[in-house]
Design brief:
about 150 residues, alpha/beta, Rossmann fold, five-stranded parallel beta sheet, two-stranded antiparallel ribbon, 5 helices
C-alpha cells in the first residue's frame, strides 16, 4: 500500500504541484482545499503525513493544527507547515504551538520532497534547523526568514 500525504491548502495549485511531483515516488496525494474537508480526510483516510497551510478561510491552519494534535485519531500524524507568511507574529504563534517542520512559499520542491520522503521512510532527521522558527537548513548556507543567512 503506498504512503498517503494529505495536502490541506486553499490554493489548489499548490496541492496539484505537490501531487504531480510525488507521483514519481509512488506516493498517493490527497488534496483538501478547505480546512473542514482536511480535518475529515485526516480523521478518516489516515494519511502518513499532512502538509498544512496556515492561512485559510473559516478555520485557520493554527486552529486546525490544534484540532489534529488534540484528536486521538490524528495526534501522531506528522505535520509540515507550508506558508507564505514570515512575519514575527506568525513565527511567534508557530513557536508557541511547537511547530518545527516549516516550509516557506515559494519553497524549493527538492527540499520539501527530501523532507517528505525522510518522514515517510522513517529516517532520523539530523539536519540543522533555525532555533527560532524550526525551518530546516538544508545546505552549507541556507536562508531562514527569521534569522537571515546562517551557516551550519
Amino acid at each position: 500500500m503506498p504512503d498517503k500525504v494529505l495536502v490541506i491548502d486553499d490554493d489548489p495549485g499548490v496541492g496539484e504541484m505537490i501531487k504531480d511531483f510525488l507521483e514519481f515516488d509512488k506516493v498517493e496525494v490527497m488534496l483538501s482545499t478547505t480546512p473542514e474537508d482536511g480535518l475529515f480526510s485526516a480523521r478518516y483516510k489516515m494519511p502518513s503525513l499532512i502538509l498544512l497551510d496556515l492561512f485559510m478561510p473559516n478555520i485557520s491552519g493554527f486552529e486546525l493544527y490544534k484540532k489534529l494534535k488534540n484528536d486521538d485519531r490524528t495526534k501522531d500524524i506528522p505535520i509540515i507547515i507550508i506558508t507564505g507568511h514570515t512575519d514575527s507574529q506568525t513565527l511567534a504563534m508557530m513557536n508557541d504551538l511547537g511547530i518545527k517542520g516549516v516550509f516557506y512559499k515559494p519553497f524549493q520542491f527538492r527540499h520539501l520532497r527530501k523532507k517528505i520522503m525522510s518522514i515517510l521512510q522513517g529516517e532520523q532527521d539530523n539536519k540543522s534547523a533555525c532555533k527560532r522558527c524550526g525551518a530546516e537548513l538544508e545546505d552549507d548556507w541556507d536562508y531562514c526568514p527569521y534569522d537571515g543567512w546562517r551557516r551550519k
